[in-house]
Design a protein that fits this description.
The chain contains 12 helices and 11 strands. By secondary structure, the chain is an alpha/beta fold. The longest helix has 13 residues, at 73-85.
């Protein structure tokens, strides 16, 4: 609707109110817009935590949406819309396409502001995750789907030309935890929202044990009281293995991630955050699969470690990992620690 009426937007509103990895996947698109349309003003609407993703970008403002409290429900969403409509935007990119963002989109359409929403292709997702033998083929990546929204708003972008976020300065607060950088820094983020996407911690401890035989320092990432305690225990094996969780602000944690030489992540947010800075990322997959479109930006497919697909032929059984399938809960045990360390060493050597 109204796409043909739009020519060269001057102020684009981008909305993504989701989890940390989903918001991180909008960063390459915002960077492309900011770099390829230097006169375009951009306002990103998301949760307050994610402001550091965008705070250093010229012509990019951040609006912290309070969708858990004052801006929830129809009345709250209307208040959010009224705030946003006062910013003078002339195009709206809905990169979430859920009920909340659809309500906001409807309000803008009533004001005759051009709106384009993310296309999720649920039909292809169902085919990819069907519990049957299937021929796997990659879906369009989520970052490319974000770019498609921009294209439809008359803002075509080239993702191949994007300059990613710069490495940040190692501040005294960070260095107090990390020490001076004299060797390779490897991040490990062993947790995920769903257990079907988590490598068993007992095997991750073996990865850490093997990796400590190399010249490197390991930093463990996570969040939540239970995770922090587990990471403290994992880090206790060596002074070259450091638990970061609970020690730094989110912004400083991002600054540290930008200085890593490698990040090992589940199919979860830390991998996408590292990718924003061009840090090499090894992703470990359980019941999900890189073909669903959630590989971190610019990371080669060979950096994705998958379970034994001959033993577990129905993988992927889920796009997000939120489905429990009998007999598939232990699939990640088929990823041997030696295989993980071998991949780490190969990337660090390059």
């Amino acid at each position: 609707m109204l796409e043909n009426e739009l020519k060269h937007p001057k102020h684009l509103l981008i909305m993504r109110l989701s989890a940390i990895g989903d918001v991180a996947m909008t960063v390459p698109v915002v960077l492309a817009l900011q770099q390829q349309y230097p006169n375009l003003k951009i306002t990103v609407v998301s949760r307050p935590l994610f402001k550091p993703f965008f705070s250093s970008l010229p012509n990019v403002d951040f609006y912290a949406a309070d969708v858990e409290n004052s801006q929830t429900g129809l009345v709250g969403l209307y208040k959010l819309y009224k705030d946003l409509s006062g910013l003078g935007i002339d195009a709206f990119a809905d990169l979430h396409n859920v009920l909340r963002s659809k309500v906001i989109a409807t309000f803008f359409k009533w004001k005759r502001i051009p709106v384009v929403s993310l296309y999720k292709d649920r039909t292809e997702r169902k085919k990819l995750t069907a519990l049957e033998l299937k021929k796997l083929s990659p879906m369009t990546s989520m970052v490319d789907r974000h770019a498609e929204v921009c294209n439809k708003l008359q803002l075509p972008i080239s993702l191949s030309e994007v300059k990613l976020l710069d490495r940040k300065e190692i501040s005294p607060e960070i260095q107090e935890i990390t020490g001076e950088k004299k060797t390779k820094w490897v991040g490990i983020a062993p947790f995920a929202t769903y257990e079907t996407k988590m490598y068993p911690l007992s095997l991750m401890k073996e990865v850490i044990h093997l990796l400590l035989q190399e010249e490197c320092k390991i930093f463990l990432f996570g969040g939540g009281k239970k995770e922090v305690e587990q990471l403290k225990e994992m880090a206790s094996v060596s002074n070259r293995c450091i638990n970061v969780a609970g020690s730094l602000s989110f912004k400083l944690e991002l600054d540290l991630i930008s200085n890593l030489d490698l990040m090992v992540s589940m199919d979860s947010g830390n991998g996408h955050m590292a990718a924003m800075f061009g840090v090499p990322v090894i992703t470990m997959w359980g019941n999900t699969h890189p073909y669903a479109g959630f590989v971190p930006f610019r990371q080669p497919l060979e950096n994705s470690l998958l379970p034994d697909l001959k033993k577990y032929p129905f993988i992927p059984t889920s796009v997000y990992g939120n489905k429990i399938i009998e007999g598939y809960t232990d699939c990640m045990k088929t990823i041997q620690p030696e295989r993980v360390v071998q991949k780490i060493k190969r990337i660090l050597a390059n």
